[in-house]
Structures are given as structure tokens and as C-alpha cells.
Amino acid sequence: MASGKGFAKVILFGEHFVVYGLSGLASGIKNLFTEATTKKVDSGIMLIDNIYNRVDNLKEDENFINARVLKPVLDELNIDNIEITLNSSIVPEHGMGYSAALSVSVIRALNNEFNLGLTDEQVNELAYKCETVSHGTPSGIDNTCATYGSLLHFEKNMHGEKNKIEILKLSKPFYLVFGDSGKKGSTKELVAGVRKRKEENPEEYDKVFEEYKKLVSEAEDALLGGDEKKVGELMNRNQELLVKIGVSIPELDKLCKLALENGALGAKLTGAGGGGMMISLVENEEMQTKISQVFKENGFDSIKIKIGE
Ligand code: MEV
Q: Which range marks the domain in which residue 298 is found?
């Protein structure tokens, strides 16, 4: 028996822009994760999925989504005769990096079960291959957060070489509240939509991308300097840019408005958009509770997290 974890993620700055090689600031969330537990069996590769409540033989049903997503792992690590059980505190399809966390948890559990000696970097590379099955042309930010579980600066290398990954240490934690739009978004479709609109409107999109580039550099300085007011302002501007590239939806806009009207320092969608989650930055735990309550009164679920500890 062995087990492994993959962490949820929150993108503070950079969804969609990171796909084109611009910097992103994101964090793994240590207390929200998918956990895989493995057990050697006599035959087959069984997946007991306690999230979707189904049991599948991955060798027999090769078209099942988890069979396709995990194929690069099972092939590359030459895995057979195993039972994998999945549990998760991350809600799938909500912009919290569930698919990446799932792959990382399975790779880590197999690494431990078979003493494969994979480093974090190798776990991350393999998880990226799984992400390409789920999302087409992912940047790699989700699997990187799922692997490292920490706040990081991420930059995709557009020439296929190593991505830039820098773990960031903050002098004090930042308090955030996720607001759940209650809608599902498809990362693959949203990324493809941005690509199409970008190709159709190159000048308009170039301006947005240029502005984001400056914004994210200021955001990193503000984060490292503990200037939460500035981080909040930049999150608001980032949300305006995400609206411009067409990935927000009315529910996410409403959640951002509610957060700001009730004293949050900043608010933006997080993840691919089109549904899923938004995040609001607040000053302290008291404000976290207040914003959560406001979301609840308006019919939205929420999750409180701290990052940068
Ligand atoms: C999804 O969590 C983030 C996107 O930027 C896609 C990616 O980076 O692969 C929308």
C-alpha cells in the first residue's frame, strides 16, 4: 500500500496569459488535495473513483476519460496489476486544478508503491503529459501548483525547454475567499476561444497582453513587499482584462462586485473562467468570514484559504 497527494491551485495572476509565455503568480493549496492510494493486485489496473463513485478497469475501458488522462503515466512507468483509489477535497471542473491534482496524486502514489525514485520535477513533467490529454495546450501552471503546493512564479518556456518555476516566500500570509459561480467551465474550450479571438483581433489583444505583462511584474513586487492593497488593485485590473478577452461570465462578475462592495481589497476570476471560481483578497480572517457570509446570502458557495505561509 502507498499513497500520494496532488494539491489544488489558485491562480492569483495569469490565467490564459501564461499559455502564451507570460508570467503567472499562482499557489498550490496545501489543505485542499486529491489523494491516491495504491494496492498491488493479481491482475488489471483498477481505478476506484470515490469522487464520481465509479469503478473502472483502465485496461478494458481505454476511452474512459481517466484511462486516457492516466495513460502517459501507466505507459511510461510500465504499470500493471494495481488498484488505485481516489479521494478528493477538490471539486472537479471548478477552476481549482482538479485534473492536475489527480494526475500528481496518482504519479506520487505509484512512485511510492514501486519505489521509482521520481523527483518532484519528474512528477511535474509526467503530470504535464496527462494535462495535455485533458486540456489540449496547457501552460503547465496547474500541474506545477499541484506538484509543489506552494506560491510560485511560473513562466512557460515557449521553445519546449524547461519552464521557469520559482517558489516565492512571503513575509506574511494572504487571506483569500473563493466564490463558486455554480457553473462549469471547460478549460480546453476557453483556451481555444481566447486563441481564436486573439487571432481575429491581433491589435486589440496585443494591447491587453502588453498591459498584463506590466501588471504582473508590479503584482509580484507588491506580493513580495506584503502590499495587499496594491495586490488587490492589480487583481481588479486583471479581472477587467479577463473580461476583455471574453472569459468571465455574469455570475463571476456578480461575485467580484459583491466582494468589492463588502470590503474585499481585490477580486477576479481564477482558473479558466466560463464558470468555476473567483477569488477575493481580504485583510484578515474576520473579513474572510464576512465575505463568505455575503456569498452565502446571495446563493454562492465559498472556500476560505491562506497562501504564502
Ligand atoms: C487553467 O487553470 C489556466 C489556463 O491558463 C490554462 C493553462 O494555463 O493551461 C486557462
A: 174-307
Whether 64 and 147 map to the same domain: the answer is yes
At residue 135 the predicted structure's pLDDT band, cuts being 50, 70 and 90, is confident
Instruction: For residue 46, report the distance from its CA to the centre of ligand 1, in Å.
Output: 29
Cross-strand bridge partners of residue 54: 49
Q: What phi-psi label fits residue 189: left (phi over 0), alpha (psi between -120 and 50 degrees) or beta? A: alpha
pLDDT at 297 over 80: yes
Regarding whether 132 and 23 lie in a shared domain, the answer is: yes
Torsion (CA) 154, 282, 290, 255 in degrees, nearest 10: -50
> Distance between CA atoms of 251 and 9, rounded to whole angstroms?
21
Least Cα distance to 99 among 271, 304, 307, 279 occurs for 271
Range name among 9-13, 31-35, 57-61 with the lowest pLDDT average:
57-61
The answer to whether the CB of 181 falls within 8 A of the CB of 275 is: yes
142 is catalytic: yes
Residues with CB under 6 A from ligand 1: 11, 15-16, 18-19, 135, 138-139, 141-142, 187, 191, 271-272
Residues 153 and 14 in one domain: yes
Phi-psi region at 263: left, alpha or beta (left = phi > 0; alpha = psi -120 to 50): left
Amino acid at 113: E
Q: What is the pLDDT of residues 55-109, one digit of tens each?
A: 999 888 888 888 888 999 999 999 999 999 999 999 887 889 999 999 999 999 9
1 CA distance to ligand 1 middle (Å): 33
What CATH number should be reported for the domain holding residue 37?
3.30.230.10
Give the Cα separation of 267 and 306 in Å (integer).
15
